[in-house]
Amino acid sequence: xxxxxxxxxxxxxxxxxxxxxxxxxxxxxxxxxxxxxxxxxxxxxxxxxxxxxxxxxxxxxxxxxxxxxxxxxxxxxxxxxxxxxxxxxxxxxxxxxxxxxxxxxxxxxxxxxxxxxxxxxxxxxxxxxxxxxxxxxxxxxxxxxxxxxxxxxxxxxxxxxxxxxxxxxxxxxxxxxxxxxxxxxxxxxxxxxxxxxxxxxxxxxxxxxxxxxxxxxxxxxxxxxxxxxxxxxxxxxxxxxxxxxxxxxxxxxxxxxxxxxxxxxxxxxxxxxxxxxxxxxxxxxxxxxxxxxxxxxxxxxxxxxxxxxxxxxxxxxxxxxxxxxxxxxxxxxxxxxxxxxxxxxxxxxxxxxxxxxxxxxxxxxxxxxxxxxxxxxxxxxxxxxxxxxxxxxxxxxxxxxxxxxxxxxxxxxxxxxxxxxxxxxxxxxxxxxxxxxxxxxxxxxxxxxxxxxxxxxxxxxxxxxxxxxxxxxxxxxxxxxxxxxxxxxxxxxxxxx
Length: 497
Prior knowledge:
Blueprint: H1 9-16, H2 22-29, H3 32-53, H4 58-84, H5 94-111, H6 120-151, H7 156-185, H8 198-219, H9 237-248, H10 252-273, H11 275-282, H12 287-312, H13 317-340, H14 347-387, H15 392-404, H16 409-420, H17 439-464, H18 471-491
């Protein structure tokens, strides 16, 4: 293995032009289970667990998760920069993926095992510290993992396939988390309010996350000869990081993608954070319907993955994403308003309608997410053409941070929003939790999860309209990079891989 790493850069570039093969795509994709399990647990269960079950206030819960995101704003680019500028016999990415898998599992287990005696500021401190530990550990595994995907191939179309493999296993991880939560540990009419069931749920899904990342890290070791060799920048870590980030924001394509995804996932996170609140209290769904609607969205993702590959190979990624954002905006703006106006059916007809629309929304979200990740890899190549350096780790640090806004900024918006409309907490302590909320409060909840989220999506769409990196522009970038590599081989100086 070590000898194979001595291949010249042109040989590595030739390997990156070859198809990956189904087995390698599958092994690489399995790592997405780790991130998916964490994101699903935080987005779907944590806010409800902390507020309705543990009794932490809505705003303090949002602030706690936002503080963890702020710390992560420093950790993400730091991990990305260290990964970009490191090299071992196992490459730049694999050591991080291996090292962070166990801490992620431990932090996830602790986050859902809050001691019963904690309340108020003590509870806030516990959640904040453990959330920070989880966020940092998640960065250590996910950023190098995503950057690895951008290095496996230089082909414009196959990059969509690589992202699609991640997306498929994202669906697997999301469904696994929801099934383990809603059916195994938190099932039954009052299962969501059963505090003792959350601890085993947290440890089990932590184990699933760890297994997914270890499988990907070990399974993709044979791909090391394909990867870029990069000459690390000189200077201090902090100085190097500042220079790298300045370069990053010097690329217009990255700035547009980052701001768009940041807004998109803030909207997704706000809706997801309030998902159980919405289904339990606004839509008044029974437990079986909650399970059906919750599982419909990741099943929609499963449908959206092959559909995204199909449309992305026939249309520009840009237009696929614009259409997806427009559909998400309309969906969120209309449905809760129709419910408030009394224009939707009741009972099973409503449950079926919500499940069907969740399926469609999941498919559309898959198209948008795959498009963004594929375009971020394209923008990383554009970065090399502009600045002469490979910085996949930092590029996906931006994407990863924006994705984490789903449970950071989204939780903050959700928590403050609930307190503004007067939504109660500690509902598990009440005899009839679903009857403890006045009708006007439920109406305001519908406006938050509907038009409020739609406004965020609309802003994301407007910003994304400025993105211009298409198939033709990318082909020109690849021609420039290949010419540079050939010239570097001729003069015997080839640091970039």
